User: Fold these one by one.
Assistant:
Number 1:
Amino acid sequence: MQFARVIGTLVATQKAAGLEGVKFLVVQPLDKHRQPVGEPVIAADGTAQAGPGELVFIIASREAALALPQPFVPVDHAIVGIVDQADVH
Amino acid sequence: MYVGRVSGTVVATIKNELFLGRKLLVVDRLDLATLASLSAGKPARSQPGAKYDIAVDMVQAGEGDIVLVLDEGNSARQIVDREPDGAIRAVIVGIVDEIAMAGDARADV
């Protein structure tokens, strides 16, 4: 899992089966010092409580789908937690 | 699996239920040169810009520890006994006591 900052929301009416009701957010992956690294990605919100501006952690690959209420849906990044505090050196 | 160095902690209240009661640590992946210097008995430092993972700690690791990290979902789910649908991938599965690299690798230091 990696840190990411939520920088936007995304709405799609027409989407693959299984993704109904899944909230999508635009997130910018961050390095461990919370500086942007790489391009933004679209992540499904596995917490259902994240919003723009928040520092979150995301899980990538197949495990992303497992973070959602209905597993085995077509997503490749998901938010699995909202960071309260990160103490990294 | 890879060898990493624990460089921090993450606290989250709102998170996937799988992580409730589990410790999340930031682990920096160590490169070959760092492994070689560890092998030579020198202390390892995290390299700037190194890849990192926020990993679930299963071995009571702490900041500064050199650890063995598993980054594969099926194995991770076995370890936390959450097959087949646990949303987990990176897990700290060991604290490294010693690593010995072959002579050629050591020569890079």
Number 2:
Amino acid sequence: MLSVNNLVTSYGLIKALKGVSLEAREGEVTCILGPNGAGKTTLMFTLAGILSPDAGTVNLLGHNLTGLGGPKVLNQGLALVPENRLVFPDMSVHENLLAGAFTQSKAMAVEVSEDIDKMYTRFPILKTRYDQLAGTLSGGEQQMLTLARALMSRPTILLLDEPSVGLSPLIVNEIFDIIKQLNEDGMSILLVEQNVNKALQVADYFYLLDQGKVTFGGTPDQLQNDDIIKRAYLGGE
Amino acid sequence: MDTLQTSLDGLMIGSTYALIGIGFALVFGIMRRINLAFGACLLFGAALAIYLEPWLGWGVWGLFLVTMVGAALASAYVERLCFAPHTKRTQSMTAMIASFAIWMQLDEISSQMLPQRTHAYHGLEMPTFWLGEISVRGDQLLHFCMALVSIMLLYVLLYKTHLGLLIRATADNPETAYLLGVRVPWLGFIIFLVAGILGGVGAFMILSADGYVTPMFGMWSTFKGLLAMILGGLGSLPGAVIGGLILGVVETHAGATLGAEYRDMVTFGLVFLVLIIRPGGLMGVKIYRTESLAQERI
């Protein structure tokens, strides 16, 4: 569904991605693991159109997304939930959700409010806090808000950059339950994670990213069974 | 009674400072930049209005229209030339220095259109109202109402429209806004345009109340607008309004009590005092706090 071929992205002279190729299949949860500095966030930003690659292609369902830029990529159906839960702190929860629907034209106002109702059903905590300023929410609530906001743009594939970072284990469980639920409802998901345990529970396929290159691609079983990789990247289990 | 009269006069002139201050605060609050050429844009609008007056012959409302449109066009011009090419956070200095240069350019163009030291800027011929011993000039009252209407329209734009939502989101966090599909460069253009329109209204109010325009108007309105914005808190729109009103009232009182020579000294002294006691301006340091918190998180 989403195929990435030989993606090269640099920051000035430093090559962060040195030819990354991977595939996220429709209806599956694909997970990218790797140590810090491997280039995971760079990859997500390149896919979302925030960074422009030097070489390589990004294809979503046959449409070429390479180098298109944030708004156009969003229009094609790729939504990114960035690291660190970037909500709009001085706007209410409700307004944040409205913000997620920026790319939906004003003529679809009815559908936008229907979408918001759907979000409130899926995330009841947001409904209780719909009037509150987003900056005053707890970390877990902000993560749910960022998720719901991304869903407002009606994506075909959802990109998640380290959704568990900075959250307590209980909340992390809740978030991953939601991710699993979304996938069961048909959403394709590309997930970057540091929390290997949780990732193992939800993912259908894994990629390991190290120093800008993909070093492993396989299913959870294959990952579990490969001792070398386990010791090198997962610190032994 | 005198105090009341002076305060009333101060509010009238303060409302014009508020509009110019909003022009600066819009650009700073949303784009995190100061348009140093803003005052010169207003002068350009006024100069254009007087220059075209013989051709158009629309009278005072013609002056109003052309000042507003001229200021908006000049503001948009500055945006395209100085601010649009330098959008990264690290380039805000570059953009502002560029706008400083265009300040000179617009001042010069305006001087070409208005070669004399003063030019008549016709105001409305309206009666003066008397409430007991308080006198209120009819045209200043109308101007005050115009300022009120402008501010209310701005409020409606920002809080009740889709565009307003885009603007507030971009002000909160431009990167996230871009992530959600906001075309931030286009939005910057709109902001400068709106700032120009509001500033143009303010310029018309001052100039038609005074009855004339001089080449110093560019620098003068820049100072007043910046002072209003600093008093109220950088980037805060309600702050710019309050700052402008306070500036007007204090200034008028100082002029009435101490004489015109000390008026500016008192005004600048007030700003100095506010900056010592409350460095973020009257409405606080919200923007800086949010930014520093965000930096800490990352």
